[in-house]
Specification:
This protein has 735 residues and is of the alpha/beta class. The chain folds into four domains: 104 residues, no CATH class; 118 residues, Nucleic acid-binding proteins (OB fold (Dihydrolipoamide Acetyltransferase, E2P)); 188 residues, P-loop containing nucleotide triphosphate hydrolases (Rossmann fold), CATH 3.40.50; 178 residues, Rossmann fold (3-Layer(aba) Sandwich). The chain is built from 22 helices and 23 strands. A seven-stranded parallel β-sheet has the order 13-14-12-15-16-11-17, with helices on both faces. Strands 8-4-3-2-5-9 form a six-stranded mixed β-sheet. The chain is globular, with a radius of gyration of 32 Å. It starts with 21 loop residues before the first helix and ends with a helix.
Amino acid sequence: MFPWPNHPPFNTPLARMPGISASLTRYLAQRGYHAFGDFLTIIPNGYQDRRESRPLSEAKDGEALFFKATVAERELLSSKKGARYLKARVEDLSGRGAVGFLFFFHVLPYFQKLLAPGRTVAVYGTAVFPPYPSQSGGRRYPGAPTFTHPEVTALRPSWDGEDDGEEALRGIWPVYGPMKGLSPSKHLAFARHALEGADGAPPLFPPSLLAKWNLKDPTELIRIVHAPPNLPGRLPRPRESRAFRSLVLLEMALWRTLILLAKEKRQETALPRPPEREPLKERFLASLPFSLSAEQARVLETLSQSLALPFPQNALLQGEVGSGKTAVISALLFQAAGQGRQGALIAPTELLARQHFAFLRDRAQNLGVNIAFLAGSVPAAEKKKVIANLASGAVSLAVGTQALFFPKVIFRDLALAVIDEQHRFGVSQRLLLREKNPLADVVSLSATPIPRSLAQALYGDMDIVSLKGTLPGRATAQTLLFGPAQKEEAYALFVSLLAKGERGFLISPRVGEEDGDGEDGDGLGPAPPEEDGAPSPRGPSLSQMEKTLARHGPDLRVGVIHGRQENALRSATMDAFRAGDLDALLSTTIVEVGVDIPEANVMMVEGAENMGLAQLHQLRGRVGRGGGAATLILLAHGEPTPFAVSRFEALQSGADGYALSELDLKLRGPGEELGFRQSGWPKFSFVKLPRDLQYLDKARALAQELLSDRASFPPALWEALSALSQSLSSAALGI
């Protein structure tokens, strides 16, 4: 994400690279590599140590060696299976009489020509000592090393000590991983070409600041990573080198600088805060059949104070399943309505949006507040009416899906936008929301608690408010584990619990097609017909599970929902389950968030070994919401790996969402669940989270120093940072 200086070679388009094809240029562009500077962010996997050639007699088993030798003989042979291969015997030039054998299984005509007897060659490869004596032509060479597909270069004849070409092969050579259409040798050639002229590039960071921190400029560091200086000493792996670690620190410092600039920009806006015309927040709270917990009251007061500040707010409210976020955020929405302004609540699925609407509708009507629902399934005439009422201000609260993002939806005076499960929305969608009113406050909700260190790295522009614990009366479900051989036993337990009068969820990992299940779809239409073919590694489909459940509990009343159903059918099924007309709800993970059925106390999840820890914890939060004893049955479809078992054991321990999020971070990294790839910020080139959180404190300090001395910024950097922070401020990181 470095804004490389506007100077060759960094800004030169890859299409100008000598020898690069149009197809390779397109392939690299699809992966974010457009210019030479982008290409240089592809770090070598390792280095070849060719700083000096050593005698073949010093070869050690399993170690790489760079040596000079003469080809004594070579021959084409066949394996027992008929495969052709080339074997060459080479003799050391050190005068110690050592020999070695080179084996090649591909490109045989080329190597047969290269390894002509009598030719002097330079060889780099890993030595392997076979457990039996090597032999060739009837002669035995006990302990002779072998090299499979080493790198071989023909050397020129030399007279009187003249250079035979070996000098050009010495040094530290980077080794690049395979890429489609780009061999390691061609990658090396391209990287060397891209590095030409890098020494003359202007600095990216202020030289005085870098000197104070004992750092080099990124333009120099990237050159060192690709072409380390030929100095003595142990050769580190590229990502363990000081140069690479410095790039990580500087990239994270640049990230923090952008965050600070974006926050400064937001806080420059003077925003009048009208007083409440009516105390709707207080009246809403008084209308609830319960009192807010002390933790809920604390968080509500924190957010209320934040939303009273004279500039647009951008907050992230995180709290695990059952912590009571809905009541808190509803109070803030009624506060906006009490100011004579408008509030909006957006959910990623219509199922969740309708549940929010049902909670708010009755209370809004009792308080005299006009509320409307908008989603893709809303009839055209009603949709047109809702849009007109939002534009005129006749509707104070809007609840819906991504339909609220559409350009034709205009708010008269949007004061507060609440985005539930914010990481499920893309950057472009969140930008459309920001266009409704650039001065609106935005509060994003996340039921996946984020470790504080990671939250600071990812969402540094946001005020992060955490709602700890769960509401009184909600106990963590007992978690039971069943392997694939215990499937019948697991189903029998699930049915027996329902027979006692419980209601339960049965979760399938897929609808029926391998190419996408549409769990989060919104009116995508009916699911395709099920095809009972070979078993899926992900687990059984809905129809397969329905048959198994019918075999164990033929009298059970079972409803089925998934993301590809018509919304009307899905909503009717949910209503029937909520009303007690169904014993079990067979579903995909569409019920993972927001579904609130207090009477449901049992859940069984098939294919649980393929689900993440945070997702399983979210699913577990769907049961026991009414205070009853709850049970979660995790059924593995295949034999769980130690990795999966560690997740299961963590759930069995009953740990809360924050403890589980820390563990999930260690096990899986931030991943998609935290919205990292959709955060709206540039892709890191060198930083990898959570591995590099260790640099966060230094990066923050460096960023503060960087901003405190803006006059020393190289002009190109300041222009790039200003433009980038402006666009990122619009994306607002978390929304």
